[in-house]
């Protein structure tokens, strides 16, 4: 598949609900590729996989949808509809921060719930809260694992899902029963995605911007100096169109100076290559995940060194923020705690963890009044006024999501 995917669809829900298995059933790709993830059986880093959707002109809907050029039912040639990128997020509550950084680049979501456990599980609530926070209103709910329960339990679970979803962004979302393990009902799921999560209209005239979710050094050890390739950054284009050969900037950039006087310096580079889907492209637009090959020193990009940065056309990115003033919106109770912990107001000198798009930073509250908080950041961020940031507070041994703020 050489077409760039035109939309990002996230997978949300509790850790064992089978999100990665559903993505694999649709795309053929197992998104938990890192060794620690394979060993533990959970997705720790956000994973990605692309699929092409096709429609059979001969079969009746919704059974005419598939991911194949030849209809699996009647063997007719199918018609290409669109290419989709699935963003597979970790479900475990301690990895909530990673999920939020993935939600920053989603156009819609599949919310996966297991038929064989009571709904909602603790992490289902967390992910639904996060979906509301980042405004993920285009949603399809997937009732997975119907192959391991009887009809009566499946019906009870369906009602549990409806009750859970009714006052949330998933209130009018369809609930599609599937067995990801056996690839059952995938045609109906694709039909629901096609109807409920259309490709958003994009404005190609605005200055391009990308949130960096991964960064790499693609050179193998022992590569000859003349053959060394520049650093590569990966992520999703949020707006506009990037073109090969143009000059870009990356902010906040890299740390410079001594330990007691650290500042951040933006990086300037040229776009050498653009990769999307399975191939190289001349330009990259929103939808899907894009790898940008640059002429940066690969030591800067290796091992996810630039994750959390923002990439844009040179001279177009907002200022670097070392301190943020936030309009704060707190949840009634902390997310992910075993007991219900009411959220107290933010206090002076309180440490917080902030997520701004794909950036994660800590900060100290230097002013707190009513619903406004000023936070001095340990590591600066690059964000526009009006951007949302997730706020987490230390509760027990973990950082727990307590609400969000809007940059003033």
Description of the molecule:
With 408 residues, the protein is α+β, with helices and mostly antiparallel strands. It has three domains: 8-196, 3-Layer(aba) Sandwich (Rossmann fold); 209-313, Elongation Factor Tu (Ef-tu), domain 3; 320-407, Elongation Factor Tu (Ef-tu), domain 3 (Beta Barrel). Helix content is 16%, strand content 38%. It has seven helices and 22 strands. The chain has helices at residues 19-27, 35-40, 96-103, 122-133, 151-165, 186-196, 298-301; strands at residues 8-12, 47-55, 65-66, 79-88, 108-114, 139-144, 175-177, 209-216, 232-239, 242-243, 247-256, 263-276, 279-280, 283-284, 290-294, 310-313, 320-330, 351-356, 359-369, 372-382, 388-395, 398-407. Strands 3-2-4-1-5-6-7 form a seven-stranded mixed sheet, sandwiched between helices. A six-stranded antiparallel β-barrel has the order 8-9-15-12-11-16. It has a six-stranded antiparallel β-barrel with strand order 17-20-19-18-21-22. Helix 3 packs parallel to helix 4 (122-133). The chain starts with 7 loop residues before the first strand and ends with a strand.
Number of helices: 7
Q: What composes the largest sheet?
A: 7 strands, mixed
State the name of the first-level CATH class of the largest domain: Alpha Beta
Please state the structural category: alpha+beta
Number of domains in the coordinates? 3
Shape: globular
CATH superfamily of the largest domain: P-loop containing nucleotide triphosphate hydrolases
Low-confidence stretches: none
Number of strands: 22
Terminal residue distance? 42 Å
Q: Approximately what portion of the residues adopt beta-strand conformation?
A: 35-45%
CATH architecture of the largest domain: 3-Layer(aba) Sandwich
Q: State the helical fraction.
A: 10-25%
The gyration radius over C-alpha positions equals 22 Å
Would you tell me the overall average pLDDT?
A: 89
Give the ordered list of helices and strands.
EHHEEEHEHEHEHEEEEEEEEHEEEEEEE
For the biggest β-sheet, the strand order reads 3-2-4-1-5-6-7
| CATH topology group of the largest domain | Rossmann fold
